Amino acid sequence: MTQIWRPDIPPSPGPLYARLTDALERDIAAGILPAGGRLPPQRDLAHTLGLSVGTVTKAYAEAERRGLLLAHVGRGSFIRGTSPDIAIATSFDSVASASEAKATGPQGTGIDLRCNIPPRVGLSRALERAVADLAASGQLEPAVQYIQASGLRSVREAGAAWLARRYGLACDPADLIQCNGGQHAITLVLSSLCRPGDTVLCESATFYGARTAAEHMGLTLRGVAMDEEGLIPSALERAALETRARVLFTVPTLQNPTSRTMSLSRRQDIARVARQHDLTLFEDDAYYLYADPADRPPPLAAIAPERTVYLASISKGVCPGFRLAFVTLPPNVARERIMRGIRALGYCPPALGGMIFARWVADGTADAVADAVQAEAAARLAMARQILGPAMDSPGAARSPHVWVPLSPLAAQRTLNHALRAGVDLTPPEACCVSRDAESGLRICLGAPDDRPTLERALHIVRDAIHEPAISEARGII
């Protein structure tokens, strides 16, 4: 029998779907929702509560992940209960258990395809050697002290050498600013260039971290339409005229989430529009290392250096744990404003990760690690192409840590729910959307699983979720 349920969702920080899931968990614990009861269909509950169907769908999926529900297409969602001796007698229990066992590791945790990190290439021994060498040479002292706000000069010199060697971008070490990872850099730059209430232009589907930073600072993101090469220049021009925005945040190489890459001519057109409308370009080049050096276009910072703030993250191509990124500034951005931001947001960057990186740049370890990451990324992308086939867009480079599966909003949410039930975590489809006409689909991150067999299992689950009959119908396949 379907349970009648009208939860109390008190106002509080956090996503609405998470608060709805919390209310569900509270009512189960209080006995308001008994084990074995069937919850209302998602569309019915959405209508009752005045919420979007997507919010309720995501809450039900999160409740499944927490072990509160069991769901079966065509039958509904059932309360699992909190007591270990309570079992729900449904015909799909064994099927769900088998799917979860196939998808998860020995600890029973889901396979993560949400976190966009480089594949693991065995860094522990190299890290141990670097720390031992720093200790033996008496160079560890800065790691236990406050350092200058812009970072250690030795680290900035290594950053300049790295950008010249791997990015083809020449810069003076004195002009580099060391940041505590790319997310810190995004928050730092946006808070220094903008004020609450300002509009920042970006791709219609953008990096979730930039969206989080903008929301935290009270900024409005205005999505700009894209095509297969990324930002459309004419759409950018219209948005600049309509909003009088002063900043464009863009990921021109392997755009996150769509994995599209701007050609040289497209970058030149974007730079032209920026000059005409006096836009400061904030270029997040986190994935430049993954592009083929033989044919990758230069960064926007090389095309329009007079107006581009450039961000290069070491986390995405070498080691996430370093929490290290570098920012370069154009002449029209006051460096002191950035320095004040650093002191306000963290006082100074941590030293140890940067010191190890500097040592690795000097002895060649950084190049070896980056090359190993690229080789593994190429192998994982080939696997994704083989398993996902035409459901996946071809990324804008021969190697990519993430791929894009275009789907309607409804089909994307259904795919996510089916994958989640089988033990695979995907990024929610609305996480990256900025505007109503945003690119719709799912980002699949290939680097997070520990090894290729785990990734292979996860990709098969995603493929099956995409082609499940109800989803295929929503996509117009059948």
From the spread of the alpha carbons, the general shape counts as globular
- What do the pLDDT scores average to? 85
CATH superfamily of the largest domain: Type I PLP-dependent aspartate aminotransferase-like (Major domain)
Please give the radius of gyration in angstroms.
Answer: 24 Å
The fraction of residues assigned to DSSP E strands is 5-15%
CATH class of the largest domain: Alpha Beta
Uncertain runs are 82-108, 471-478
Strands, count = 15
Q: Helix tally?
A: 17
Question: Quick one: biggest sheet?
Answer: 7 strands, mixed
Q: Give the domain tally.
A: 3
What is the CATH third-level topology name of the largest domain? Answer: Aspartate Aminotransferase, domain 2
Strand order of the largest sheet: 4-12-11-10-9-5-6
Q: Per CATH, which architecture of the largest domain?
A: 3-Layer(aba) Sandwich
Report, as a whole number of angstroms, the end-to-end distance. Answer: 32 Å
Helix percent band: 40-55%
Backbone structural class: alpha/beta
Domain HTH gntR-type: 14-82
Family: In the C-terminal section; belongs to the class-I pyridoxal-phosphate-dependent aminotransferase family.
InterPro entries: Aminotransferase_I/II_large, HTH_trans_reg/aminotransferase, PyrdxlP-dep_Trfase, PyrdxlP-dep_Trfase_major, PyrdxlP-dep_Trfase_small, Tscrpt_reg_HTH_GntR, WH-like_DNA-bd_sf, WH_DNA-bd_sf
Protein name: PLP-dependent aminotransferase family protein
